[in-house]
Amino acid sequence: MSAKSRVRVTASPATVTAPIRRPLSSEPLYARGLVRAQLRLALVCLGGFLLTAGALTLVLFAVPSLNDIVIAHVPLPWLLHAYGYYPIIVLFAIIYARSATRNENRYRALREGDE
Fold first, then answer.
1. Average pLDDT over residues 7-12
2. Where are the extended beta strands (E) located within the chain?
3. Which phi and psi (to 5°) does residue 63 adopt?
4. What is the pLDDT of residue 110?
5. Amino acid 45: pLDDT
6. What kind and span of H or E run contains 113?
7. What percent of the chain has pLDDT over 70?
8. Which of 2, 48, 82, 99 has a CA that sits 20 to 30 A from residue 74's CA?
9. Position 4 confidence tier, pLDDT thresholds 50, 70, 90
10. Where does the sequence pass through the membrane (predicted)?
């Protein structure tokens, strides 16, 4: 049997390039902050809405004299249960949309200032 010699193949040092190192971007950090801020805003708006809607329901239940007020042959508590929540929903939707836009503008300003 003949012995085969092994040949080692290597690249010349001139062709080896160092990996390109980019500075660590803080964009993922800002994005996580934005997501947390939006979640916190959503939870606060939801809690505020539930508290307000619950308070309205409690008032309608706790004040029986409201049943004496009749508009177009319909007691006032029925009308408030049927239509009273819509303005509350719209109010909280406007608050959320404005605050979410403000959060996104702050994120955008931070991101652009970082570049």
1. 74
2. 70-71, 74-75
3. -110, 90
4. 84
5. 96
6. helix 85-114
7. 81
8. 48
9. confident
10. 41-63, 83-101
Whether residue 13 is predicted with pLDDT greater than 90 in this model: the reply is: no
pLDDT of residue 67: 85
Instruction: Indicate the pTM of the whole model.
Output: 0.67
* Number of separate domains in the chain: 1
- Domain boundaries, position 34: 27-114
**Which among 57, 55, 49, 64 has a CA at the least distance from the CA of 81?**
57
- Give the span between the Cα atoms of 104 and 115, in whole angstroms: 17
Partnered with residue 50 across adjacent β-strands are none
**What six digits make up the tokens of 47?**
């809690």
Query: What is the residue whose two structure tokens read 């836009």?
Result: 101
Residue with tokens 């303005």: 87
Q: Is 107 part of any domain?
A: yes
Tell me, yes or no, whether 15 lies in a domain. Answer: no
List of residues 6+ apart from 104 with CB closer than 8 A = 34
Q: How far is CA 62 from the centre of its chain?
A: 35
- Residue 25, phi then psi, degrees to nearest 5: -90, 140
